[in-house]
Amino acid sequence: MSIRILLVDDHSVVRQGLRMFLALDPELEVVGEAADGAEAVRLARELRPDVVLMDLLMPVMDGISAIGILRRELPDTEVVALTSVLEDEKVVGAVRAGAIGYLLKDTQGEELRRAIKAAAAGQVQLSPKAAARLMREVKAPESPETLTERETEVLRLLAHGESNKEIAQSLTIGEKTVKTHVSNILAKLGVPSRTQAALYAVRIGLVSVDAANSQ
Fold it and tell me: How many helices (H) and strands (E) does the chain have?
């Protein structure tokens, strides 16, 4: 089963380059391209990709607005922000909206492929620079509902960067059960993404910031 990807960037040459590069990996399949956030939302509803590679600075609808809509409407689709800017407001905005990853366009090709596969597997991956900014800016929920013991365990493993499959193996439960636990955790914490849940785990001392960053 290949990972189905939607490319979103307002520069056609960037999309073309990404499509050609990603085609070299048999595990990855580009199923669509969009030139702005509105088109991205429309295509994602239709194509149901596993991962959306989302530029942030685009006409009609910017990437951060599109990420927010996708996370609400298509919780099984993960979004990786792919941008040329490392501004605090963009990093924070993308993660607040629900992006699972944040990559710069000067990222090496192999790292990009790894990040797409990690996102599809539900792995939280943050560069140390991005994580440091997020720890300052992304507020933890004020008074979240109490997590069950099992949910707390899932959150701890998720914050360590484990994939759904790895969490399932660690706890000897099914992958579908892991997904259900993650959905419940996000709902209880009132956050849209695993990334924010992982940051919350760091904030409350469930894992150390080094452990969350070591991925």
Answer: 11, 5
